[in-house]
Amino acid sequence: MLNRPSPYDCFTVADLLVDYADQVLPPDQTERVAAHLSQCPACQEQVAQLRELSIQMEVSEPVKPTPALRNQFMLMLEQEKAALAAAPVAAPEVQAEARVRPMWAGEATRWTMRIAAGVALLIMGMALGQWWRPIAAPDVATTPPAGATKHAIQLASALSGDASRSLSASDRIQLVSNAVEQVEGTGDPAVQVLINTLNFDPNANVRLAAASALYRLRSDPRVGEAFIQSLTIQTDPNVQILLIELLVNMRERRATPQLEQLAKKPDALPIVRQQAEYGLGTLI
């Protein structure tokens, strides 16, 4: 029976699937993706869809605009030109004064009003982007614990505060992955930094990487407890599913109450509830 790859395994090859489908990957990456596909039906289906889409794009003929569409566009263009030409022309002294007025004041033309509306929409979009932007956890979330090693301090500094915001998600994933090799046995403070990253990093892919890194350090007794607690606060389905798989692999029966709660959670995705039920059936 083949081992099912985790969501993090799928994430690590996701960017390569398009080139794999087009057969333009280097040999080493081709071998890596092929090995993953041999165990992952979901990614196999995605590659099949990519190849089918590529075939359809190759055989399809370019769509040309119809004469009616072109005529309609030219009519709208002429109407705009006529509207601009019909706008009253201010005297030179008024024009000089108008240059210091807000563009929405006085005798604004329809064209100017449209520009103003476009700017307003752009500002509104920027404001909404600020409103909905994922909020990073407080800096204290990744503060190294007392007695931290030099490596733990450097890791905590890189994954928190202004330093973290200056790094891309890919850079943080690389940091998390490299951290495993530098952990100096059970009890290393860097493990707590990884746990904080799992719980508080705003990017789900970084949290996936932190969970996978911690699984490699599962001999540390903090890891199992961290996975159980993290399952109660995670909202991304990929992270939830990965945590369930890791808890099952670790035979963490202490996670049973959290799995029962997640299996009955009405706003959880069906696949997450099914995974929680699977975990319960395996652990009980």
What is the topology?
Blueprint: H1 7-14, H2 17-21, H3 27-37, H4 41-59, H5 67-86, H6 92-98, H7 110-132, H8 150-158, H9 161-165, H10 169-182, H11 190-200, H12 204-216, H13 221-231, H14 237-249, H15 256-263, H16 270-283
Helix pairs in contact: 10-12, 11-12, 11-13, 12-14, 13-14, 14-16, 15-16
Kindly state the percentage of residues in helix.
55-70%
Mean pLDDT: 74
The number of helical elements comes to 16
Class from helix and strand fractions: mainly alpha
H/E element order: HHHHHHHHHHHHHHHH
Q: What would you note in describing this structure?
A:
The chain contains 16 helices and no strands. It is elongated. Among the domains are: 7-52, no CATH class; 138-217, no CATH class; 235-284, no CATH class. It is mainly alpha-helical and 284 residues long. 67% of the residues lie in helices and 0% in strands. The model is unreliable at 94-142 (pLDDT under 50).
Task: Give a brief description.
This protein has 284 residues and is mainly α.
Relevant terms:
284 residues; 16 helices; mainly alpha; 67% helix
